[in-house]
């Protein structure tokens, strides 16, 4: 029977801890829970359900997450961290090709180690940065549910390797969450659609997930409450960000602007404008904006034909992956019952249009909000693990083969890709030199024949093998892959019983000790951090508004009457004073007043800019 606590102070019954599902996305993150009615729902107020996965550090080093942090992207790109999921569990070597994409400092002094990010003279690991985002989601859920949130299921792309999964788990732990399970995003999506909840149904489905930074496709068979992933495929560096970059390139080219001449701030601003243009045009609305370069306001236009030109080559790559996944699963496109669309970028109309070259329109299902499905499914999985539904069982597969290095640097696969997990497999090896007493065992993940092309997870030594002639010892190496896709390896010399075991994680994860001490730190400071954060968020928003308003007034003085300029300056001064010494509420009130007063000015300018853009001219 569940135990219900009593709050002695208030004399009320305490709510039991909530168990939540979290979609920790490259661009956006969401948190969801299964409510008392048994339905999964995302948490947060209607306009802030989606938390941009962005962390901004202000001058004092305090972290701000989400929409407020997104505002800082333009003016403080070096202290505003986005797409951290692309760095999670990765070394500099892994991401070097994409390093130019990041406007913040990524440290490249040790290519083999987990990357670090330098912000205001302080180093952060992607695990810490992800933990900051997870803490924000946890707080949001606690606010919404008025209950403690301590247990969670977190989703990862099906293609995440062991290091990336472990890093995600560490981030959860650091945020004070007991991570019940790391679940593949396509598995969560199919749960959200309710597939598998009826034990009499059998379905074969394809999950097409195109987000901000990653693309995954998985083929699943669901039968009698069992979810079996038949195959997975994808690209960890493909998504809406690429479309945004394509739009920026298009603008620079068509406006004859040398990319080298732009500052980091200008790049960030263009990136945000590109995303706005994409969303606007893909939702059927025309886009026109403006961008300041060398003191000249340049009109930016964007239309559907250009969007499709940029999007189509990206979607072509996804279709190649879809075909490979079907082939790996051994199913024909016509045998797929439903193609489920997940991820914000599936709102691009071209996605459904292109998928129709493989599937029939009736197979494509996008009835749920593509942003929410993964979080909703994670919540259902959390509910299952909390013991509330006994009718569902989850079977996943490992996306990449796991093996060890043998003579000549070859990969010897022990657990092949697409094996169902949890699972274990073992193989026997022997020594190559007479009297060899130690054997070094290097574990790799990947599909290539040479280990040099695969990812090294860890290596260890089996010591103390009794001296025997070469080829005589029998060393059994056993791999055990748990339900999260995390690997444990044991090596045993069978003649002597010498044995060693290792859990694969130290190279990229944080040690338990470090995680624990960071956790204690964050718990000790939780309440003060919370209040400080609220105040700092308000100050940042205020400063951002003052910056914009002042810039606006100095650039467009001819548009404003003398009285309007004076009144604006008075309100700016008042807000400045509140920022210097006022409370959070006073600052917010100052923001509202200034905002209300200056809003009509911006509309006035917009009319002029649109007029000029329609004429295709450059305005000063
Ligand atoms: P996700 O990673 O699933 O949160 O997806 C985020 C991506 O979806 C970002 O690249 C967004 O720009 C993109 N996105 C969101 N809404 C739309 C839309 N209406 N049309 C095109 N892309 C969108």
Overview of the molecule:
The chain is of the alpha+beta class and 620 residues long. The chain folds into four domains: 18-189, ATPase, nucleotide binding domain (Nucleotidyltransferase, domain 5, 2-Layer Sandwich), CATH 3.30.420; 198-366, Nucleotidyltransferase, domain 5; 402-522, Substrate Binding Domain Of DNAk, Chain A, domain 1 (Sandwich); 527-614, Substrate Binding Domain Of Dnak, Chain:A, Domain 2. The protein is 37% helix and 26% strand. It is built from 14 helices and 32 strands. The strands form nine sheets. Strands 3, 4, 5, 6, 13 and 14 form a six-stranded mixed sheet that branches. A six-stranded mixed sheet has the order 21-20-15-16-17-22. Helix 6 packs antiparallel against helix 8 (304-329). It is globular and about 95 Å long. The structure holds adenosine monophosphate. Adenosine monophosphate (AMP) is lined by residues 25-28, 211-212, 239-241, 275, 278-279, 282-283, 343-345, 347-348, 371.
Secondary-structure blueprint:
Elements: E1 6-7, E2 12-13, E3 18-24, E4 28-34, E5 40-42, E6 51-52, E7 55-57, E8 63-65, H1 67-75, E9 80-81, H2 92-95, E10 105-107, E11 116-119, E12 122-124, H3 126-145, E13 149-156, H4 162-174, E14 178-184, H5 185-192, E15 202-210, E16 215-223, E17 226-235, H6 240-254, H7 264-282, E18 287-293, E19 296-302, H8 304-329, E20 338-342, H9 349-355, E21 364-365, H10 373-385, E22 393-394, E23 396-397, E24 402-406, E25 410-415, E26 420-421, E27 423-429, E28 439-445, E29 455-462, E30 475-481, E31 487-493, E32 498-503, H11 512-524, H12 526-555, H13 562-581, H14 584-615
Parallel strand pairs: 3-13, 13-14, 15-20, 17-22, 20-21
Antiparallel strand pairs: 1-2, 3-4, 4-5, 4-6, 7-8, 7-9, 10-11, 11-12, 15-16, 16-17, 18-19, 23-26, 24-25, 24-28, 27-30, 28-29, 30-31, 31-32
Helix pairs in contact: 3-4, 5-10, 6-7, 6-8, 8-9, 12-13, 12-14, 13-14
The chain binds adenosine monophosphate.
